[in-house]
Amino acid sequence: MKDYSEYFNKPSLKNAKHRGKDHIQHINDAYEIPADMVGIGRGQKYHIKTYGCQANERDTETLAGILESLGYVSTDEIKDAQVVLLNTCAIRENAEEKVFGKIGYLKTVKKTNPNLIFGICGCMAQEEVVVNRILQKHPQVDMIFGTHNIHRLPVLLKQAMLEKEMVLEVWSKEGDVIENLPSQRAHKHKAWVNIMYGCDKFCTYCIVPYTRGKERSRLHNDILKEVQELKDQGYKDITLLGQNVNSYGKDFKDGYNFASLLSDVAQIGVERIRFTTSHPWDFSDDMIEVIAQNENIMPAIHLPVQSGNNEVLKRMGRRYTREQYIELFDKIKKAIPDCTVTTDIIVGFPQETDEQYQDTLSLYDYCEYDLAYTFIYSPREGTPAAKMEDDIETSVKEQRLYKLNELVNEKAYKQNLKFLDQVVDVLVEGTSKKDDSMLTGYTQHQKLINFKGNKDHIGQIVKVKVTEVKTWALKGEEIE
Ligand code: SAH
Ligand code: SF4
Ligand code: F3S
To answer: 354 and 375 share a domain?
Structure first.
């Protein structure tokens, strides 16, 4: 085992920024349960609240797997739990404030249940400001551990049970690839598979490269083995995960890249393969060809643009121009004509002028995205953009977001209309939450659809005729 004593147990943005040339370690035996922790959770419950992106959702599956391997079972009710974890997100200020709200609430829960172990993990744990605030103001937190420390949960839990002091273990390092962790998957028919961790793009507004470490790929044999196992267990929809999946394999230098991986994953024969997120910068022609040629790679691509203006893109550090983005977009639509494309957009980046914002609207109008996740820029301490002068009024930013969202809705509806009266393949996930006489699932193009159908078909892929179209979802009827 590697000696970790060189790393501070408190987060450090300065250390987190470091990108060395050392080879990433792929470690197979890092996970261990101390002898006196075996079965410690028997008869007890845990609750994990997850914030943020799919990377965190996937990490929660690992945390849940670890807790279950100690004997705990899951509960939806915080008040019934002996262990509560908040798996946090640092991407925007409002994400963080939600977590602080929850921490306040947990203070009251701990009063009635003093034996409760209450932990904070995820991306916020990697931030100095957050950890200092918790240390000063929220002593009811029993443990804080970072994104590189997940496999250490049994050891940290033991310390938290024995010690009165808050247990703090956050390694601000570049990161390893840790294999063979237990996992309790959130869904029965669709699954996430990490193919890489971290991010080296350092977009000027973004905290992720600091909270998740260096861009590092899992070995392709480990990924293919996991996908094969999921297929054998009956999974039908697999999403390959990374902050920039297109950069997959760049750290190996043996020529095996994301196009090679996609192709190998497709051969395993899972019905549906997806991937997220694609950075426009590394999107290769080989990738487009592999997606176009394999029917089980879904024609639905998430391609975040962030802004339609070259000056803003440059100051965001996005590494492409509006023209290059449009060229890529056109190439994808030409090679895969029915491909749906979704995006992410930030409005109100420091000093964004009204004209520059209009460029984002005109790009949106050109691309006619199927959907977009839209955000008001939020300064993140330690990132270069946080030091840029930001002179746009909040009301202006809100107005920009509002107008953009109107366009998003208009285009979403327009794109959904293409499916009216069509027959689509749907992976049936279950009954609709609002109306249990209806089934719900996703189409190949990642459209949510509610439909009348046979409940025995949950977990299967069925044919559904689309009878009604809305902005956020389709409606339909299963056909025999
Ligand atoms: N790796 C992905 C994005 C992950 S974060 C990519 O590069 O495409 C998801 C989205 O959050 C980003 O695409 C961006 O639109 C938004 N985001 C990130 N940092 C932000 C910030 N400081 N303020 C507002 N939105 C932000
Ligand atoms: Fe953040 Fe940019 Fe990396 Fe995406 S590519 S995670 S936006 S730094
Ligand atoms: Fe949030 Fe961390 Fe994901 S900051 S968006 S949970 S990588």
So the answer is: yes
CA of 36 to the centre of ligand 3 (A): 33
Point out the residues of the chain with pLDDT beneath 50. Answer: 1-7
Same domain flag for 165 and 187 = no
The C-alpha torsion from 49 through 51 and 55 to 59, rounded to 10°, is -20
CATH assignment of the domain containing 34: 3.40.50.12160
Q: How many domains is the chain built from?
A: 3
Same domain, 345 and 249: yes
Residue 6 pLDDT: 45
- As beta bridge partners, residue 196 has 217
**Ligand 1 pocket member 264 (CB < 6 A):** no
Tell me the one-letter amino acid at 362.
S
Q: 120, 135, 169: which is the final residue of a domain?
A: 169
Distance CA 284, CA 418 (A): 28
- Global pTM reads 0.96
pLDDT of residue 21: 72
Q: Final residue of a domain: which of 142, 169, 196? A: 169
**CATH number assigned to the domain comprising residue 277:** 3.80.30.20
Determine the Cα–Cα distance for residues 88 and 136; give it in Å rounded to an integer. Answer: 19
How far from 102 is each of 108, 109, 163, 303, 396, CA to CA, in Å?
10, 10, 24, 32, 30
pLDDT at 397: 98
Which residues, judged by CB distance below 6 Å to any ligand atom, belong to the binding site of ligand 2? Answer: 199, 201-203, 206, 208-209, 243-244, 279
**162 and 182 within one domain:** no
Q: What is residue 124's predicted lDDT score, i.e. its pLDDT?
A: 98
3-class SS at 334?
helix
Please name the residue whose Cα sits nearest to atom 3 of ligand 3.
Answer: 53
Could you tell me what percentage of the chain is helix, strand and coil, using 3-state DSSP and rounding each to the nearest 5? 40, 20, 40
Separation between Cα atoms, residue 207 and residue 434, nearest integer Å: 36
Question: Which domain, by its residues, includes 359?
Answer: 178-417
CA-to-CA dists, residue 440 to 434, 436, 437, 477, angstroms: 10, 9, 10, 11
In this prediction, residue 8 carries a pLDDT of: 56
Any ligand 3 atom below 6 A from CB of 98? no
Beta strands 439-443; 474-478: pairing state: unpaired
- The pLDDT, as a whole number, for residue 242 is 97
E strands in 41-174: 45-50, 73-74, 83-88, 117-122, 143-145, 167-169
Q: Are residues 162 and 247 in the same domain?
A: no
